[in-house]
C-alpha cells in the first residue's frame, strides 16, 4: 500500500527536502500551499509534477480539515510557520497565530478527520533561548527570547498535550538551525553566502550584518529531514533534539565563506544596528544523544562543508 504524507510548508526549505525524501521512499506526497499573487515555487520547481498541491492556510481550520480529507494521510508533517525570528518582533500577533495557534488548527484537523495519522511538529532550538544549560537537550527548560520562540513553545506543548490527551502519535522535533542552498535569503547563512558570491562577481560592494558574536549549532537541512521521517517510524511517539553538537559564531561563518573565494571578510563586512535584535539568543549548542541512540540518526554534512556548498551554489546561480 502506498503511504500518503501531507506536508505543510511545502514551498519552504525543509518542505522541499522532505518531499524529495518521501518521494524517493515511494510515498504519495500532498503539499499544503497558500494562495499568493505570484506563485513562488523556486524550491520545489523540480518536484511540482510529483506533488499534489492542496490550497490552504494554517490560519483557516476549514482548509486544513479539507486538506486532511483529500490527502487521507498516514503521516502529517507540520512545517509551516512564520519562521523568521526578526520578523516576529514586527508581526508578533501574526507570528503567534501561524507559528503557535496554527499548530492547534492542524492538530484539530487531524484529530477530527484522521486521528490515527502520525503527526510531526517542527519545534525549534529557539525555545531554549536564554542559556539555562549547555548543551541543550530534551529536558532543558525553555526560556524563549522572541515572539517566534514563545509561539514555538506553545506549538511544542500543544503537540505534547494532544499526544497525552487523545493518545495521538504526535512528535515534536526540536531542531537546531539547519541550512542549505535553498535557505531563505534573509537568514544569516544564506545572506552571507549570497553576498560573498555577489562581491566575488563584482555585483555588490559590502555586507551589512548585526551581531557577529552569537553562536549557532548549524547543520544541513537534507540531514535533518531524515530525522523528521525517523521520528514517525518508531513504536512510540516521542520528542527529540536534532543538532550537530558543534557551535560557531557568526564571525566564523563569515570568515569561512569569504576565505572560500579568496577574500578577507574585514574588507567588506559593515556592522549595522538595524540587524541587531531587541533580545538575542547568545548560544545554541545541542546534545542529540537521544536521537542517535533511539532513531539511529547520523549527520553527513559538517559545518565547513555546508558553508562552502552554499557559497558554491550561490556563485553558480548568480553566474547564470
Ligand atoms: P521556511 O520559512 O523556508 O518555510 C516556511 C513555510 O511555511 C513556507 O512554505 C510558507 O509558505 C509556509 N507558511 C507560512 N505561513 C503559513 C500559513 N499561515 N499557512 C500555510 N503555510 C504557511 O522555513 P523552513 O523550511 O526553514 O522551516 C520549516 C519549519 O521548521 C518552520 O516551522 C520553522 O519554524 C521550523 N524550524 C526551522 C529551523 C531551521 O533552521 N530551518 C530550525 C527549527 C525549526 P509561503 O511560501 O507561502 O510563505
Ligand atoms: P535564527 O536564524 O534566528 O537562529 O533562527 P538567523 O539566521 O536569522 O540568525 C542567526 C543569528 O545570526 C545573527 N545575525 C543576523 N541574522 C540575520 N538574519 N541577519 C543579519 O544580518 C544578522 N547579523 C547577525 C542573529 O542575530 C542570530 O543570532 C533560525 C530560523 O530558521 C528559525 O525558524 C529556527 O527556529 C531557528 O533558526 C532554529
Please characterize this protein's 3D structure.
The longest helix is centred in the N-terminal third of the chain and has 22 residues, at 92-113. The protein has helices spanning 13-24, 61-71, 87-90, 92-113, 147-166, 188-200, 221-231, 250-260, 289-295, 303-319, and strands at residues 4-8, 28-33, 51-55, 75-78, 118-124, 170-175, 178-179, 207-209, 215-216, 219-220, 240-242, 248-249, 269-271. It is globular. The mean pLDDT is 98. 40% of the residues lie in helices and 16% in strands. It has ten helices and 13 strands. The chain has a seven-stranded parallel beta sheet, sandwiched between helices. It folds into two domains: 4-178 and 218-242, NAD(P)-binding Rossmann-like Domain (Rossmann fold, 3-Layer(aba) Sandwich), CATH 3.40.50.720; 184-217 and 246-284 and 293-319, UDP-galactose 4-epimerase, domain 1, CATH 3.90.25. Helix 6 packs parallel to helix 8 (250-260) and helix 8 packs across helix 10. It is an enzyme of class 4 (lyase). Its cofactor is NADP(+). This is GDP-mannose 4,6-dehydratase.
Any key phrases for this structure?
320 residues; Rossmann fold; seven-stranded parallel β-sheet; two-stranded parallel sheet; binds NADPH dihydro-nicotinamide-adenine-dinucleotide phosphate; NAD(P)-bd_dom_sf; NAD(P)-bd_dom
The CATH homologous superfamily of the largest domain corresponds to NAD(P)-binding Rossmann-like Domain
Biggest sheet layout: 7 strands, parallel
Architecture (CATH level 2) name of the largest domain: 3-Layer(aba) Sandwich
Give the C-alpha Rg: 19 Å
Q: What is the helical fraction, as a range of percent? A: 40-55%
Amino acid at each position: 500500500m502506498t503511504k500518503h504524507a501531507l506536508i505543510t510548508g511545502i514551498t519552504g526549505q525543509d518542505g522541499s527536502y522532505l518531499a524529495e525524501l518521501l518521494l524517493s521512499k515511494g510515498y504519495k506526497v500532498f503539499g499544503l500551499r497558500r494562495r499568493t499573487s505570484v506563485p513562488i515555487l523556486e524550491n520545489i520547481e523540480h518536484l511540482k509534477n510529483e506533488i499534489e498541491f492542496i490550497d490552504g492556510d494554517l490560519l483557516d481550520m476549514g482548509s486544513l480539515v479539507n486538506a486532511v480529507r483529500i490527502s487521507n494521510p498516514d503521516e502529517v508533517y507540520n512545517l509551516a510557520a512564520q519562521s523568521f525570528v526578526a520578523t516576529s518582533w514586527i508581526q508578533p500577533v501574526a507570528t503567534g497565530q501561524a507559528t503557535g495557534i496554527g499548530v492547534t488548527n492542524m492538530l484539530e484537523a487531524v484529530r477530527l478527520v484522521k486521528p490515527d495519522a502520525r503527526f510531526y511538529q517542527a519545534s525549534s532550538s529557539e525555545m531554549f533561548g536564554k542559556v539555562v544549560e549547555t548543551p541543550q537537550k530534551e529536558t532543558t527548560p525553555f526560556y524563549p527570547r522572541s515572539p517566534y520562540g514563545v509561539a514555538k513553545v506553545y506549538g511544542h506543548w500543544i503537540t505534547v498535550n494532544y499526544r497525552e490527551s487523545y493518545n495521538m502519535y504526535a512528535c515534536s522535533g526540536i531542531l537546531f538551525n539547519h541550512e542549505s542552498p535553498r535557505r531563505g535569503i534573509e537568514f544569516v547563512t544564506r545572506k552571507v553566502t549570497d553576498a560573498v558570491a555577489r562581491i566575488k562577481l563584482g555585483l555588490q560592494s559590502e555586507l551589512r550584518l548585526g551581531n557577529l558574536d552569537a553562536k549557532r549549532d548549524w547543520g544541513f537541512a537534507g540531514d535533518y529531514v531524515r530525522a523528521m521521517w525517523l521520528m514517525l517510524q518508531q513504536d512510540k511517539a516521542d520528542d527529540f533534539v536534532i543538532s550537530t553538537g558543534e557551535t560557531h559564531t557568526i564571525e566564523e561563518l563569515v570568515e569561512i565563506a569569504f576565505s572560500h573565494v579568496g577574500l578577507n571578510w574585514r574588507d567588506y563586512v559593515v556592522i549595522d544596528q538595524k540587524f541587531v535584535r531587541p533580545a538575542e539568543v547568545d548560544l545554541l549548542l545541542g546534545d542529540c544523544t537521544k536521537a542517535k541512540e533511539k532513531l539511529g540518526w547520523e549527520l553527513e554534512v559538517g559545518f565547513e562543508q555546508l558553508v562552502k556548498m552554499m557559497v558554491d551554489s550561490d556563485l553558480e546561480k548568480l553566474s547564470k
